[in-house]
Structure formats: structure tokens, C-alpha cells
Amino acid sequence: MTDEAPRLRAILDTTVPNQARIANYFLGGKDNFAADREAAEQILAVAPEIRVMARESQAFHARTVRYMVEQGVTQFLNIGAGIPSENNTHQIARSLAPEARVVYVSNDPVVLSHSRALLATDAKTGVVEGDIMHPAELMADAGLRRVIDVSRPVGIVVLSSLQFIPDEDDPYKRVAELRDLLAAGSHLMIVHAVFDSRPEVAPPIVNVYRRVFGRIEDASRRRAEVMGFFDGFEMVEPGLVYIRAWRPDNPLNVHNPDKAWLVGGVGRKPAP
């Protein structure tokens, strides 16, 4: 779109921290500003292991996408996509299935601008505006349907975005609505921070993100609460676990999985 850059400049306020740019900073990226780095450093002061956790999340992402391709899934929705990285969903999927089709979904103008410029480079890759809180509108989006055949199984990738949505917004209901719109054989992958092993870091981290989002609600969860997002799905072994322990490439290298306090899992929608 020719008006993308002026529109982005009108929306972009570099003095306000942004979730996607904070995540980019954790990964060592350069698409962030001073306000993002300040907020990120406040979080890292409480939990410096978050840099490692960000990389662990990327590795989990790769393992789960490869798993879904091996199960015959060749079309994916990355919902709540972040700023493009070195190993994006379509690159992972196409390493095994060159025909794989991927749509990236975000409601963040920064992410949308970067993704349209860097990712939407062929007919098998799309970028659409939307989020997991409006599943019916998302699945009906014309841009999505140009790339994805919703009558066939889809792999849903949700990297961390649910962990910022408080219960007051009823994200469980929205994920269930999305599930009901998917074809049998579709898969749902979720990554979510939990505080079972580090309860003491929850309040200061929540306070930083409260300032980022301008909300007072607490969206922090424990593993048992995250499990509710998979209602109606058949869990793939080993279930919802700390991500280091989910089908690691080398099981001998898995030590203290709870030190990366992100849980993740994959569920499959069964046939009716």
C-alpha cells in the first residue's frame, strides 16, 4: 500500500513502549526504541533469564511447526505474530513442505508494516489485521481466505499473545470459538509464561506490562489455567509442559526445564 508509511508514522509513538518491540529487544533485534528498551530492562532486572526464554520459545516454535507438517498440515495461521525474525513460520514449514501456506495475523501497526514488507512476498504468504479475540471476523477475512482453505486442517500458532489477555476479556471463550471454526485435524500450538516456579517475579513483571497496555487487570497464569485453552483438543504427547521438555531435538540436553518458565503444547481437533 502506498500510504502505509504515512499511516504508520501517524500511529507510531516511539515514546510509548510496545509489546512487539520489547520482544524484539529480548531476541537481540534492532527494531525497538528507547522506551521499549527501558521497559525491557526493567523486566530483565527482575528476571534476566527472559532473554534465554525468548530464544527457547523460538526453538519450540520450530519444533512444533515441523511436527505439524509431519502430521500433514501444510497451512498455518500465526496469530499475534511479532516483528519478523530469522526463522519465521513459513520458513520453518517450507523447509519440509515447499507448498506450505502461511498467514501472519496482528493488530499491531508496527508488526503489520514490517510483515507486509518482509514476509508477504508471494501468493502463499499473507499478512492480515486481526487478533485471537475476534475469531469469526478473522476466519472470514478475504485476505486470509485467499491464502488459506479453511475447509482443510490448519495449524494455529499462538506465540505468547494469550499471556497478555486477562480473564476479564474471556480469552478462553474466544479460543473455543476459534476451535469451532477449524476443520477436524487442525492443530493448536500455544506458548504461555507461567509463574508456578517463579511466583515472586509475577508482580513486578505484571506492573511493567500494565504500564505498556494501560490496563489494571492481571493476566498472569499458572500451568493449570493455561490448560483450559486446550479444551476440546486432544493433547499431543507430552502434553502441556515446560517448552524445553516438549520433544527436544536432543533429550540429553534438557536440564532444569522449569528454569525457562514458559509452558507450551500442541492440541489436535478430533473428528466429530
Strand and helix map with partners:
Blueprint: H1 4-11, H2 19-26, H3 34-46, H4 50-70, E1 75-79, H5 89-94, E2 101-106, H6 109-118, E3 125-129, H7 135-140, H8 142-147, E4 155-159, H9 171-181, E5 187-193, H10 202-213, H11 223-226, E6 234-235, E7 241-242, E8 262-268
Parallel strand pairs: 1-2, 1-4, 2-3, 4-5
Antiparallel strand pairs: 5-8, 6-8, 7-8
Description:
- Its EC number is 2.1.1.-.
- This is SAM-dependent methyltransferase.
- There is one protein chain.
- With 272 residues, the chain is of the alpha/beta class.
- The chain has a single domain (4-268), classed as Vaccinia Virus protein VP39 (Rossmann fold), CATH 3.40.50.
- Helix content is 39%, strand content 14%.
- It has 11 helices and 8 strands.
- It has helices at residues 4-11, 19-26, 34-46, 50-70, 89-94, 109-118, 135-140, 142-147, 171-181, 202-213, 223-226, and strands at 75-79, 101-106, 125-129, 155-159, 187-193, 234-235, 241-242, 262-268.
- Strands 1, 2, 3, 4, 5, 6, 7 and 8 form an 8-stranded mixed beta sheet that branches.
- Strand 1 (75-79), helix 5 and strand 2 form a beta-alpha-beta unit.
- The radius of gyration is 18 Å and the shape is globular.
- The termini are far apart.
